[in-house]
Amino acid sequence: MPGSIWSLCEPEKLWKPNAPGIGPYHLNNYYAPLPIKFPFQNFSDRVDYQATERLRASGRVSLFRTPITTSNPTGSDYFVSDRGSERDATSITGDVTYTLSARTVINVRGDYHSFIDAAKYATSFADNGGWAKIWPNSSFYKQVFADPAVPVELPRMSISGTDGSRCRGSAE
Hints:
Elements: H1 3-6, E1 36-37, E2 41-50, E3 55-70, E4 84-99, E5 105-120, H2 124-127, H3 130-134
Antiparallel strand pairs: 1-3, 2-3, 3-4, 4-5
């Protein structure tokens, strides 16, 4: 790989191979399980109350919270996970029944439900330096993100030599 390309970034901050890789290009030469945490929290309770022979009330509250997070298995400043999410649900119901007579019953019911299943992408990537952090000596990416409609996403890269050799941080 030409040295001029590596001079645009700091290869010493990339994580080092920890596996032999597959095939002549040594693909998939880094393996680290991504620890994803699922702290499942669930609360559900119901109350039934008979105030008088004619008046009854009941209610239920159910809360479900699962903020999913990951950590950095590489140790590199360049690693930013985009695998977090928020999976929450809330359900609240209430019911009041009043017996006016043997032939007339009044029932009032109310409920509230909400559900969130939202991915939490790495929104701090741009705030913590973004692409300038990876390529401090170049600004080639600024034209791409000049349009505010284009989100500043994490860069993805795959580096391998065309002759099967591993790419290094200096010109050969």
